[in-house]
Amino acid sequence: MQLIEELNVLTSEHNHALHGDENKTTTQDSFTGKNRKLYIESYGCQMNFADSEIVAAVMMENGYDTTSDFKQADVVFLNTCSIRDNAEQRIRARLKQINAIKREKPDMTVGVLGCMAERLKSKLLDEEKMVDIVAGPDSYRDIANLVGEAEDGNRAINVYLSREETYADITPIRLNSNGVNAFITIMRGCDNMCSFCVVPFTRGRERSRDAHSIVKEAQDLFDKGYREVMLLGQNVDSYKWENDSKTEKVNFAQLLEMVALVNPDLRIRFSTSHPKDITDEVIYTIKKYENICNYIHLPVQSGSSRILDLMNRTYTKEWYMNRIDSIRNILGADCGISTDIITGFCSETEEDHQETLSMMKYANYDYAYMFSYSERPNTPAAKKLVDNIPEVIKKRRHSEIMDLQNKISIERNQTDLNKIHKVLIEGYSKRSNDYFQGKTTHNKVVVFPKENYQKGQYVNVLVHECSKATLLGKILA
Ligand code: SAH
Ligand code: SF4
Ligand code: F3S
User: What is the pTM of this model?
Assistant: First the structure.
């Protein structure tokens, strides 16, 4: 039992959803003989991490290598997240630390990129004087020029949001890569106006990337040895691309199929699905291709139709349950489902909260990301509703949903016991180099003795033990 408890702690980070503020990654060292050093720290969701790979590509074109030590860097970027207040607080604390170092190393140029740059714009330069560069998510082609401007002592800010930019032609430099899993951004921005959410303001209008550039990126990754791609967008089900002459139109189900056909040994995942937009066609496409993982992240946010309406999610509790039914009917029990939940939204009553708990039981989620509502300035909820649930009640409801989800997750994992799962090996387990870890099609992390296998291979693993976050097994010869 000791091992499985330790594994619990070590693998509790799930890596799929666009969930925001807990994550952080940094650049690693690269030595291609360039003159200058770039250090990027990325916060927030996978889309931000994928954007940092675009930024690294642009900067490498312009004479930079990456470093893992910001003290060695000529240029330091923080690619930031604004999704909840604590995400921004964390970045402010980090900027203070970096500024302390900068006092001893005044030549170092510091830039804030991403969602917080877009939200706060020139405030970061003028009022707070914490940075040299402010660059929003659609400005990364311009990023090396901004560095040049800052180094010449000029104002370096670009927070222009584009209706077209998808960086389709830029090949990302994979950062922190295990050589097996990679992100592919398929669209940018968001046209929904969920009342609590800052993303439409920080990322701008929704636009879909050229389908052929996505397939090409997937093919290139496969050729380089990658075996799993995650297609990223805030609302992948509304992906819609057409060519200039409008003779070719591709929706999300069709895009999934195009990527699945790259190679049967390339696994496909995607995030995030929106309950109002996920179609049966998408679910049937998942069923049709073995390499499209049987796993759907379907954020519910609340189980109460009244709260969903205030959140402007544009679906009801019944609609959401119908989507769960469709997934279970078409894919059987053989589909992992996870969700996002916000607790303590404006005016949420005890009854609303109970409805969320019963929705969790109904959907039987494998995993859930659970957040206390954090009011974001200038969002529709901040303008029209009152953040009136006291912090203690938010906390209590949050721990009630967490307790319930832990119980459900363990029950769900127990159904995997004594079964054989096809696992893609992603690398060493965090605890020991004698063990590998990888994932099942349902996005469950499995840890097993490595024997003579290599990362990037598929193996059949018999699972014999589980915890709420991890399965433990043994490769079958
Ligand atoms: N596009 C995705 C979500 C992106 S943000 C979707 O529509 O599902 C990731 C999650 O953060 C959201 O699903 C939501 O649960 C949470 N979130 C967003 N804004 C929040 C806020 N103001 N307070 C607390 N949680 C929030
Ligand atoms: Fe935010 Fe809603 Fe868009 Fe998701 S769909 S990014 S929650 S506005
Ligand atoms: Fe992502 Fe955070 Fe921006 S969740 S889209 S980095 S606000």
Answer: 0.94
404 within 8 A of 226, measured Cβ to Cβ = no
Ligand with an atom nearest the CA of residue 345: 1
Expressed in angstroms and rounded, the spacing between residue 130 Cα and the centre of ligand 2 is 29
Could you report the per-residue pLDDT of 261-280, keeping only the tens digit for each? 999 999 999 999 999 999 99
> Atom of ligand 2 at shortest distance to CA of 301?
7
SS3 at position 298: coil
- pLDDT tens per residue, range 169-185: 999 999 989 999 999 99
Answer whether CATH 3.40.50.12160 is correct for domain 28-158.
Answer: yes
Q: Rounded to the nearest whole angstrom, what is the distance from the C-alpha of residue 80 to the centroid of ligand 3? A: 7
Task: Give the ligand with the smallest distance to the CA of 271.
Answer: 1
Q: How many CB atoms lie within 10 A of CB 318?
A: 8
Report the C-alpha gap between 193 and 207 in whole angstroms.
15
Domain 420-475 has CATH 2.40.30.170: no
Q: Is 299 in the pocket of ligand 2 (CB under 6 A)?
A: no
26 Cβ neighbours under 8 A, 6+ residues apart? 39, 40, 41, 42, 68, 70, 176
CA of 397 to the centre of ligand 2 (A): 23
Structure tokens at 27: 């650049």
Residue nearest ligand 2's atom 5 by CA: 192
Token digits for 356?
Answer: 């969320």
